[in-house]
Amino acid sequence: MKHLQRIPVALLLGLVCAPAATTGAVEPLPAKQIQQWIHELDDDHFPVREAATRNLVKAGKAAVEAVGTAATTGSLEVTERAVNVLKELSFSADAAVAAAARQALTRLAGSDNAPAARRAHAALRSHVQQIIGELERTGARVHIDGDRVLGVDFINAKEFRGTLRSCTGSRTWKLFR
Fold this sequence. Notes:
Elements: E1 6-7, H1 9-13, E2 15-16, H2 31-40, H3 46-59, H4 61-73, H5 76-90, H6 95-109, H7 114-137, E3 141-145, E4 148-153, E5 161-166, E6 172-176
Antiparallel strand pairs: 1-4, 2-5, 3-4, 5-6
């Protein structure tokens, strides 16, 4: 399809490639359990912090709001781990979980808490970087100016076959060359 040789920048920036993480939560967890895991993000023992991080990721959407709050109210260790939990959830195969996590990251990126804002901004950039990497592997040329994507040329793209999902998860764009 020759008319798809250049994709609009707005479309590129609103897309997410195939998700990398999934959540295992089936039943809603009590808020008390989620708060306990958040408290454990700052535990003196590394294995406890690691287990708490894994458990919050497994908790999925039930943990998003509390984890987002913890990112701005805890220590730097809690901030780092909380943003990492949200980043992992933002790549979830569950569209509702991914959208909630991206919304939390977007709120954090605009917050007055500089460490949380920087980390959240970097987590959100990872989505765009993943899309750019996928496009470049096909031979497409991505035009970038600093942090801004100006456009994508598909003229030299070979065998481009992919599904790009919108950030809201409401639409799927299938592009075939």
